[in-house]
């Protein structure tokens, strides 16, 4: 498993039973630094499940507790920013399958502004049930932080409307309002602190790229990141590297253009793009080679891969095969595209297309005569490569965006 120590991927989950706060981490974990708002209008999206999860004994016990007016708890279920072992999927003696453990946080967002209870789920890869979440909240009422008497909060809120629907009846029986509330900003800090605690205690680990910036750092939205990974997942499911060789290509017609917020001058225009496989294997049973795809923005880019010493660029003498390197259009009837006078390997509709493309093309524009003299490798195309590996090689920021 790339970038992880197997010793951290133990399948003995009794380790969570011995989980204690780090003595060095005595500071209270922050709640929201900014006010959040109730979303009463969102009740229309909540399906109330008519189920009572409290036993008669629990109902009697907790209703006797004093209730602190205006006290608000927020219960959040999140994946931690660490890797540990899944409880299923790997046979005994085999390498354990990594997962990000689910954790439940009970956060007193008013008036204390701190986490009053937390639990790492067991099995860690399974989202906790409503019954498990209810049990943790009851434990927090019965065993509050030191110097605070047992009591019920006035409200318990969730950022997950499904949990609101599953638990509203049970909390209402205790006189506790249960509703939806946007997640407080301090939760991210709580998750990071708890994750770091597990790593310091050698109870989990992080990969080499886990905390590196993901696609969101480029200015993409959550929806765009999710759509990108869904497309990559579909590509991996089809396994084209088993049927196509690396010099074959697939033409894809894009209907819209895409620009990055952080790089206004960088955009991909609508039109045709081209994809070739990486990691073709003749024997399907051989799966140790790196798999992936290379995306080229124009047919010219596709034809101008990295050139080995002594190999010349294709000059495309047949005018019917030429396409504009900027807009990917062919020449009109009885017209010819204009060739780049320096490299002689890309073509343009007009001077405007050439100006638009020059910022990208100048790093690839090589005089063929000088290339022959240098006898060195030069970059002949701009491409986007996607490699498939273990899930631990994906940054946590991207994984969180997909989950949301």
TrEMBL record:
Ranges for domain MYND-type: 324-365
GO terms assigned for molecular function: zinc ion binding
Keywords in alphabetical order: Metal-binding, Zinc, Zinc-finger
Keyword Metal-binding belongs to the record: yes
Annotated protein name in UniProt: MYND-type domain-containing protein
Protein source organism: Aphanomyces astaci
């Amino acid at each position: 498993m790339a970038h992880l120590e197997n010793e951290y991927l133990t399948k003995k989950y009794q380790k969570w039973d011995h989980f204690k706060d780090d003595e060095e981490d005595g500071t209270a974990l922050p709640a929201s630094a900014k006010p959040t708002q109730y979303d009463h209008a969102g009740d229309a999206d909540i399906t109330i499940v008519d189920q009572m999860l409290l036993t008669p004994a629990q109902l009697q016990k907790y209703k006797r507790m004093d209730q602190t007016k205006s006290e608000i708890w927020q219960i959040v279920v999140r994946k931690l920013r660490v890797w540990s072992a899944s409880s299923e999927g790997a046979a005994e003696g085999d390498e354990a399958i990594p997962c990000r453990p689910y954790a439940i946080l009970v956060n007193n967002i008013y008036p204390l502004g701190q986490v009053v209870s937390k639990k790492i789920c067991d099995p860690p890869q399974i989202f906790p049930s409503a019954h498990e979440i209810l049990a943790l909240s009851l434990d927090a009422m019965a065993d509050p932080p030191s110097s605070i008497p047992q009591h019920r909060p006035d409200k318990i809120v969730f950022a997950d409307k499904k949990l609101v629907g599953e638990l509203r009846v049970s909390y209402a029986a205790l006189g506790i309002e249960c509703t939806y509330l946007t997640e407080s900003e301090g939760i991210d800090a709580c998750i990071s602190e708890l994750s770091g605690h597990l790593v310091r205690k050698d109870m989990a680990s992080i990969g080499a790229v886990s905390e590196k910036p993901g696609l969101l750092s480029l200015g993409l939205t959550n929806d765009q990141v999710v759509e990108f990974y869904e497309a990559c997942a579909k590509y991996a499911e089809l396994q084209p590297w088993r049927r196509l060789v690396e010099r074959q290509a697939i033409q894809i017609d894009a209907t819209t253009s895409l620009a990055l917020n952080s790089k206004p001058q960088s955009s991909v225009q609508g039109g045709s793009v081209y994809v070739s496989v990486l990691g073709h294997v003749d024997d399907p049973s051989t799966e140790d080679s790196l798999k992936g795809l290379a995306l080229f923005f124009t047919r010219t880019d596709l034809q101008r891969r990295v050139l080995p010493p002594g190999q010349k660029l294709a000059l495309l003498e047949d005018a019917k095969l030429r396409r504009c390197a900027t807009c990917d259009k062919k020449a009109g009837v009885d017209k010819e595209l204009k060739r780049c006078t320096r490299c002689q390997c890309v073509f343009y509709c007009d001077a405007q297309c050439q100006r638009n493309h020059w910022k990208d093309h100048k790093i690839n524009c090589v005089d063929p005569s000088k290339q022959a003299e240098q006898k060195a490798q030069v970059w002949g195309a701009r491409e986007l490569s996607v490699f498939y590996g273990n899930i631990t090689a994906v940054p946590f920021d991207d994984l969180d965006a997909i989950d949301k």
